[in-house]
Structure formats: C-alpha cells, structure tokens
Amino acid sequence: MKQQTYCQSHQGFAHQFIILNQGQAKLACGECIYQLQDNTNKVDFGQIISIQKALTSPDSLIQKLTAQDKFSNLFQNLGNLTGDELKQELENFESSLRQLQILIDQVIARAKMQVDLIIETRINIKNDLIQKIKYPQFVKLLEELGNSQQDGQIDIYKQIEQKLSQHLNEINQGDTNGLNGYLDEILSQYKNKLQEQLKNNYQIDNLKIQIDQCLLQYQNLFSKIKRTYMLGFLEGSKSTVVSEEYFQDLIKIITDKNPKMIINQAKLIFQGTKDGFNQNSFWNKINGKSNLLMIFKTKKDVVFGSYSPCKWESNINSYVEDITCSSFIFSYKDQQIYLYPLKEQRKKYAIYCSIGYGPTFGSGFDIQIGPNFQQGQCKLGQTYNVEQQNFNPNQFFGSQQPQIVECEIFELQQ
To answer: Which positions are tagged coiled coil (predicted)?
Structure first.
C-alpha cells in the first residue's frame, strides 16, 4: 500500500492481514495473529488474507474469498500456467504442418508430372504407330480408290488397289513379327521409361510418416492442453483419506503414464466405512469396472493404494494383464508419494481377481488384502518395482497385517 495503516492495539505495528469472520473484515497486524495463536481458539488461516499477497496477486485474494478445498488445485494450476510450454508445443506443431505442406506440394507436383508423362506416353505411342503404318499414305490411297471408281476408271482402280495391298504388306516387312513385333518393342521401351519414373515413389512413404507425426503431435498438444487446464476442474467425490492436493497429484501421475487419457470425473464407487469391509460388498461395487484408483488407510494411519486400468472381474480366478504397463502401487509418507510401478516383464500379473479375495496385486502377491480387509500380506518387489533402499515389506502397512480402517475406490471416467 502507498499509505500504510497501523494497528490501534499494538502501537507501531502496521496492518498486514485481513481477518474474515462471519462476513466481517478486520484489519490485523502480526502481533494480533500471534495473540490469536496463543488463545485456546484454533486459528483458521483460511480466513486470514495477507494484504501484501492480495495486492501483489488478485489470484491470492480470489482463492481466499472462495476458500474451498475443491478450488485449491484449480488456483494452483492457473497460477502455474505461463503458457510458454504450450506455446512451444504449438510452434513445433505449426512448423511440422508447414513442412508437411511443402511435402504435400512436392507430392502433388510429382503426381502431376507422372500424369502428364502417362498422357504424353500414350500420345507418343499413337504417333509412332501412325508413322509406322504410314497412315497419311493409307488415307490418300483410299481417297484415290474412291475417285477412280466414281470416274469409272477400272484400270486405275485396280492399280490403286494393288498399291493398297503393297502398302499394307510393307507395314509388316522388316520386322520379325511385323506390326505386332514393332508394337511390343515400343511398348517395352515406354514401359521401362514409365517404370523408371514411377518406381521412386518414396515421397508417398515420407508423406505418410509426416502425417502420422503431425497427428501424434496434435494429439499430444490437445491432450496436454486438456490435461493442464482441466485438472483443476476434475469432477468427483472428495476423498476423506487424502487431501485434494494429494488426490490431484495421483491423477497427474496416472495421466502422465497415459498421455492420451483425459480424466473428466473421479467417481467414488466404494467406501469401506459406508459399504462394508468384506469381499461381497467390494465385488458388488467394482465387478466389471476398470480404471480404478484405490486408496487405503490402515489402523496405524499408513496411507497406500494402487491404480490399474485393468478390468476387475470376480469370477475369473486369474491374473489380469496390463498391456499398457501403467499400473502402480503407491504409499504416502512424510508428505511424499512413493511409487512402485509395474514391471514390464511381469505385466501379465498386474492384478488378481477372485470372489474370495479383496483387492490383490501382483504375482505371489505384491499386495493382498483379505476378504475382511484386516488380514493380508505385502511382498512388494515381485511384480511391482521397489527402488527404495532398506525397504521392509513387513512394515508397509505399519504392522504385519493391513487392518484397513478406510478404503476408497474411485472409477476414473473419461
């Protein structure tokens, strides 16, 4: 502010904050905030606006005035969007399109040349044959034959008729197979010439390659635009286990593994505390569904989970392959996400489906949750990769058994 105001309760301290309380705004200094912290009442920092931040960025003020968790990721994304990366992607796409246009023009020019060559070849073959059969002399003899008959000149008519016979016989003289042999010869010459001109059609192959590259660039650009701008607008049920920011981080990990996947909704289809911790409730809710994000919380407050695009089917009693190899298991500790991605060579064991089991992942199993969600096992590293040093699978749940106190399963819809 050009002109600062000062706190009346704490002399010499400038107002730095605005406290919102039941629709009323009150200016406060740093000492006021410290006093609030010292009081037994819990301070709601979501209702405290930094004057400096509000004056620096309207986004900060807007975020405070719409202080709901579901908006936090939206404002974070909007704040991070400089547009430079998308502009660079667009410039690359535009450059590829212009190069493609050059190649298209070259292909069109070559096609025109080839068509002209074929037309010219047909004309040349016809002219060669006309010359071979001495067509003008043939026409002249026919005209003379007609005139002599009309004038009643029988002797001349017979002479011309004889000349016509000689003319036609001469056409086949001097060639091994006569006119047919000559025709075969010139057709072979022109055929070789055409083949030479038409065989180097590499431009068509290059055109196809560049078109595919441009389409791929456009798909990537479109996906990046939509994923970047829509991430904050993701519809779905709010998780009670993890924060909105953590949930959005998981969604981003999934979309990074599946660039063509645009998630529009995360629909909560199973919640253990509501639907029941047993395999029947579990399978009733998820059977036949795919693209499931599962989040678990144990009795020891350990948070872990998984994602797989595979379809869960209760009656197959078998492993399900993830051809995309995008399945992963995760854990959350010390404000950090630890990923355990599916091994490429073990992707046919991504998940295990059986009516007698709860959520089960990997061969052997990497993670297995029993039918009552209390028993189970962790043998991470067999099908899902573990990069952490000194990793102890026996402590993955915080104890020997999972003892799940909450399980949320979200169906990610495109």
So the answer is: 83-110
Strand residues in 197-315 grouped as ranges (E): 235-236, 265-271, 292-298, 303-308
- Residues 267 and 248: their CA atoms lie apart, in Å, by 14
Task: List the beta bridge partners of residue 298.
Answer: 404
Q: Report yes or no: 380 and 368 within 8 Å, Cβ to Cβ.
A: no
CA pair distance 337, 333, nearest whole angstrom: 7
pLDDT digits (tens, 9 = 90+) for 76-87: 555 555 567 667
Cβ pair 364, 380 in contact under 8 A = no
Q: How many Å apart are CA 223 and CA 218, to the nearest integer? A: 8
Helix axes 69-80, 58-65, angle to 10 degrees: 170
**Cβ distance 354 to 371 under 8 Å?**
no
The packing angle between helices 178-199 and 84-132, to 10°, is: 170
Per-residue pLDDT band at 326 (split at 50, 70, 90): very high
DSSP secondary structure letters along 380-396: TTSSB----TT--GGGT
| DSSP label at residue 288 | T
Measured distance CA(31)–CA(323) in Å, rounded: 59
User: Which neighbouring-strand residues pair with 413?
Assistant: 265
CA distances from 390 to 13, 121, 303, 362 (A): 51, 78, 19, 21
How far apart CA 227 and CA 252 sit, in angstroms, is 8
**DSSP reduced 3-state for 350:** coil
Over the stretch 337-389, which tens digit does the pLDDT of each residue have?
A: 899 999 999 999 999 999 999 999 999 899 999 999 999 999 999 999 998 87
C-alpha–C-alpha distance, residues 233 and 348, integer Å? 34
Amino acid at 162: Q
